[in-house]
Design goal:
The protein is built from 3 helices and 8 strands, in the order βββββαβαββα. The model has no long low-confidence stretch (mean pLDDT 94). Helix 1 crosses helix 2. The chain has 145 residues and is an alpha+beta fold. The radius of gyration is 15 Å and the shape is globular. Helix content is 21%, strand content 30%. The chain has one domain: 2-Layer Sandwich (60s Ribosomal Protein L30, Chain: A). The strands form 2 sheets. The chain has a 6-stranded mixed sheet, covered by helices on one side. Strands 4-5 form a two-stranded antiparallel ribbon. The chain starts with a strand and ends with a helix. The structure holds ligand L7NDMTUH. Ligand L7NDMTUH binds next to strand 3. The site of ligand L7NDMTUH has 9 residues, from strand 3.
Length: 145
């Protein structure tokens, strides 16, 4: 079974792709940022002079919680993730990212790769995560497809 979904309660993808694609028991979650449904970003402050402050801890938490919302929509949870790839704009943020990551996952969690990239699809983004979940094809999940 293959199934793609754009979830109405999450930030709309900024391109023609789904939040996730399910292929059998594996669910491939598209690159996810800290963007909220109103298209604002968690972990971004712009002061009265227009100076922008970006917060890797707040962004990391929001990204993981956005991914959690996606897997929750399938009746699953973060414990069902089997693989994570993280894209950071700067490895200077590795410490803050890792600190928040450890509040959600440990060595029994998904395999993980973290790389630094030149840019992400919005200048306010410090982090984006893509993930794979393994979710048994229960009748409930099949019903949603
Ligand atoms: O949706 C976002 O805010 C950031 C993620 C974008 C992508 O991964 C993409 O456009 O491919």
């Amino acid at each position: 079974m293959t199934d793609s979904k754009v979830l109405p309660h999450l930030a709309t993808p900024r391109g023609r792709f789904p939040h996730y694609k399910q292929a059998g028991e594996l669910v491939f979650i598209s690159g996810t940022s800290s963007r909220l449904p109103d298209n604002t970003f968690v972990g971004v402050e712009v002061d009265h002079l227009g100076v922008t402050s970006l917060d890797i801890r707040a962004q990391t938490r929001a990204v993981i919680e956005n991914i959690e919302s996606i897997v929750n929509s399938m009746g699953a949870g973060l414990g069902d993730l089997v693989q994570i790839t993280t894209y950071l704009v700067s490895m200077n943020d590795f410490g803050g990212y890792n600190e928040i990551y450890a509040q959600y996952f440990d060595e029994t969690g998904p395999s993980r790769t973290t790389v630094a990239v030149h840019q992400l699809p919005h200048p306010h983004l410090l982090i984006e995560i893509q993930a794979v979940a393994k979710i048994p094809a229960t009748p409930e999940i099949r019903k949603q497809s």
